[in-house]
Design a protein that fits this description.
Strand content: under 5%
Number of helices: 13
Mean pLDDT: 82
Shape: extended
């Protein structure tokens, strides 16, 4: 986006201005900086309007967003996401890389595959590369969920069992990450300074109720009391 996104964005902005009878700035004109209530051009300044919009605003905004992303994801999470892209069917499987997929299974899902299965995975990927991307039913796919569904419908998930097994946990990345973030956010609200001695089990029960509050709303106090009463009767029996 930073390297190739400026020209398409500028063309879109110009088209919008033309459709709405809005004046289009001369991008080759010198940029006049606003200082306080006065507008004046810096003496000797060679900054153009295009340089201001492209560098001072467009590029600066993208750099800020990139920094925010770097602060939000550690190196291990970034590597996991990068390796996961190798499974994506987007752009006619352009990102498909056998070595990256094998590394993904080896480094992040070692308990899901035996040593023998890790070796077999590489051979499956070699056959998969010659088969699936060229198959009519698997073209024009853009997401892993579509790929996973296509493998199941065509029953190729039975042929490429190890690949299908690897795709499934990758599909849960967004859900697992969101759940973890929600849990940490909820912990700050539940375990306050006055509740620092709360035991782990009691804390976990409170977190489940808070995080899944949409589900918890369906239960009334009477329903919970009846459940405890039935448990008590079963223990007596």
């Amino acid at each position: 986006m930073r390297d190739d996104g400026w020209e398409p964005l500028l063309a879109t902005a110009k088209s919008f201005c033309e459709e709405n009878d809005t004046d289009i700035p001369n991008m080759n004109a010198h940029y006049t900086r606003v200082r306080g209530r006065s507008r004046r051009q810096d003496e000797g300044s060679s900054t153009t309007m295009e340089h201001h919009f492209r560098v001072d605003i467009f590029t600066a905004a993208i750099n800020f967003q990139l920094q925010e992303l770097k602060n939000s994801f550690n190196e291990q999470a970034v590597e996991l996401l990068i390796l996961s892209v190798a499974l994506s069917p987007k752009d006619a499987y352009k990102s498909f890389k056998i070595d990256d997929i094998c590394k993904l299974a080896e480094k992040f899902y070692p308990r899901d595959f035996t040593e023998q299965e890790k070796i077999c995975l590489k051979f499956q990927l070699q056959h998969y590369k010659l088969d699936v991307p060229k198959h009519q039913d698997f073209q024009n796919m853009s997401t892993l969920s579509e790929l996973c569904r296509g493998l199941a419908i065509s029953e190729k998930s039975k042929i490429y069992l190890l690949i299908d097994r690897l795709i499934c946990p990758v599909l849960t990345l967004a859900v697992s990450t969101a759940t973890t973030e929600r849990a940490f956010s909820a912990m700050k609200l539940i375990k306050t300074r006055l509740r620092t001695r709360m035991e782990d089990e009691f804390l976990a029960d409170h977190l489940v109720v808070y995080i899944e509050k949409e589900i918890a709303k369906n239960f009334t106090s009477e329903m919970i009391m009846d459940e405890f009463y039935s448990i008590s009767n079963r223990r007596r029996a």
